[in-house]
Specification:
single chain; 40% helix
Length: 521
């Protein structure tokens, strides 16, 4: 670990220790959202699609139930940026008409084969673009901007028959691990409203967790699917990059590395939804995932690590998370006949240096200090920080923090950045060779459970557990593993590139063994 990174980590760890009592006092009242009032809100998207085609419920009725649920919980969450409720009801009526006609003509099976999610409502992270709805991404200067077309994945999901309800909140330009911005404010965690649902797909995580969406279209560039999934107790998968389209996502960089880091993927309450959603989202490239090939868990090699490394600069992983990683490994060995491997990936302890050195080597990272009135002039970072602290800034603190990292590289010397880029390549090669086509790594998603609002600045080192796998281009799934004092516990299942099916198979098995998503009570 670099000296500069270590010093920053030590300072943040001390501040976190000193300020923890203040955060606790500020957020000690544990308010939650009301539990889902209807049993149908507990079902998977797969089950809901079957209920609709079997005539157990109409799409119009289901969509209306979900809209009512969103209206009930959003005052607690502040997750909805823009909605299309009336249009969604009209879409549902048309679905019911199509089903009725297909049933009369004996073509229902043909219809649902091409539209496996027919009539099922879903929600969309604002960055993934839903035509006609807000596309401002929490930026003050973009207020009122709307998407002119669906993002490619949203288009594919709609083509599969699903009905979009809304777009949800993100940090400004998705540049943060807490969902808050100056345009829309902060989104709350449904298990404890004083805590964050994470970011940048925090709006999606919050809505899913309390039964206000059947599934989500989200995105992940540094943990943006996996962290909210862990903090909100749902499933989230970051796919192998380059298979699922990222067309229509905002922001988008031109650097050739960016498509290797950014992935659009699914979030869901039930593990059985993930393979179907991946199949749909991949479009013509779905065969590359090989999701139709069965996974024999008896042949699975299970690697596990409960920490990236032990250092004074790193906040220790919460005991509930490390215990669940060990329990999951033992469960797979005991119940499935999987083999536990003791081989570790020691270079993951340098995840911060690897991630910063590789990610910030991109050439067209947005200049968040550029003065709109004078594009040739940059505003003062220190001045903007002061303005933001006193409530008069035009950029969120998270964006300014991102800018500080971009400018400083966390004081990693320029002469050392090439070393860490090389180390990233070597670590990727090692993990691909070691995991192969039958190995997974059980690993933390973050160093703690959902933290209090604004505590993200003191616990930022936790992103080292997710961002490194964006840099390495490896698929990873967040799996909910129960609750600790009312807050969700999530762990990460990582596999080699194009071995997403291993992540999904393990996620489904762990759901069977540990119960998966549990709604706020």
């Amino acid at each position: 670990m670099e000296v500069g990174v270590r010093l920053i980590g030590v300072v943040l760890r001390i501040l976190n220790l000193l300020l923890s009592p203040l955060f606790w006092l500020k957020g000690r009242h544990r308010r939650r959202v009301p539990p889902p009032p209807a049993a149908i809100l507990l079902k998977s998207a797969v089950e809901l699609a079957a209920n609709i085609r079997d005539g157990e419920i109409t799409s119009e009725n289901l969509v209306s139930i979900y809209i009512d649920r969103v209206k009930e919980v959003n005052p607690y969450l502040n997750a909805v940026v823009d909605e299309r409720y009336r249009a969604a009801v009209e879409d549902a009526k048309e679905v019911d008409r199509q089903i009725s006609e297909a049933r009369k003509n004996g073509k229902l099976n043909e219809l649902v084969k091409t539209k496996p999610l027919l009539g099922v409502p879903f929600s969309v992270k604002e960055s993934c673009s839903l035509a006609g709805l807000s596309n401002s991404m929490g930026c003050l200067e973009n207020a009122g901007r709307r998407a002119t077309a669906d993002g490619e994945v949203v288009r594919l999901v709609r083509a599969a028959g699903a009905i979009p309800l809304l777009v949800s909140n993100t940090p400004e330009l998705c540049l943060g691990w807490e969902t808050t911005n100056l345009l829309r404010g902060a989104t709350n965690n449904p298990y404890c409203l004083n805590r964050t649902p994470g970011g940048s797909s925090g709006g999606e995580g919050a809505l899913l967790a309390c039964g206000a969406s059947a599934f989500s279209v989200a995105s992940d560039v540094a943990g943006s699917i996996r962290v909210p999934a862990a903090f909100c107790g749902v499933f989230g998968h970051k796919p192998t990059p380059g298979i699922i389209s990222i067309e229509g996502h905002i922001p988008m960089l031109n650097d050739e590395l960016f498509p290797r880091f950014l992935a659009v993927g699914p979030m869901a309450r039930r593990a059985e939804d993930l393979p179907l959603l991946m199949d749909i989202m991949a479009g013509d490239k779905k065969d590359k995932f090989k999701l139709d090939q069965p996974v024999d868990l008896r042949k699975l090699k299970v690697h596990y690590m409960t920490e990236a490394g032990i250092s004074l600069a790193l906040i220790r992983v919460h005991r509930s998370i490390s215990d669940m990683i060990i329990n999951a490994a033992k469960y797979l060995e005991r119940e499935c006949g999987s083999t536990i491997s003791n081989e570790k990936f020691k270079d993951l302890e340098d995840s911060v240096e690897i991630s910063v050195s590789v990610f910030f080597s991109m050439k067209d990272i947005p200049n968040m200090l550029q003065d709109p009135a004078n594009p040739k002039r940059d505003k003062s970072l220190f001045g903007e920080l002061l303005k933001s602290i006193f409530g008069s800034g035009t950029r969120s603190l998270q964006v300014l923090g991102f800018t500080m990292i971009n400018k400083s590289h966390l004081f990693i010397p320029k002469s050392r950045r090439g070393y860490y880029r090389t180390k990233a390549k070597e670590l990727r090669e090692q993990m691909i060779k070691t995991l192969g086509d039958n190995g997974v790594l059980l690993y933390p998603v973050c160093n703690g459970l959902a933290h209090y609002h604004s505590q993200v600045f003191l616990r930022a080192s936790g992103v080292m557990y997710t961002m490194v796998f964006n840099i390495l281009g490896m698929p990873a799934t967040t799996v909910p593993m129960g609750l600790y004092q009312g807050l969700p516990i999530g762990i990460q299942v990582v596999a080699a590139p194009n071995q997403d099916r291993l992540c999904l198979a393990v996620a489904k098995q762990l759901e069977k063994g540990f119960g998966g998503w549990r709604p706020p009570q």
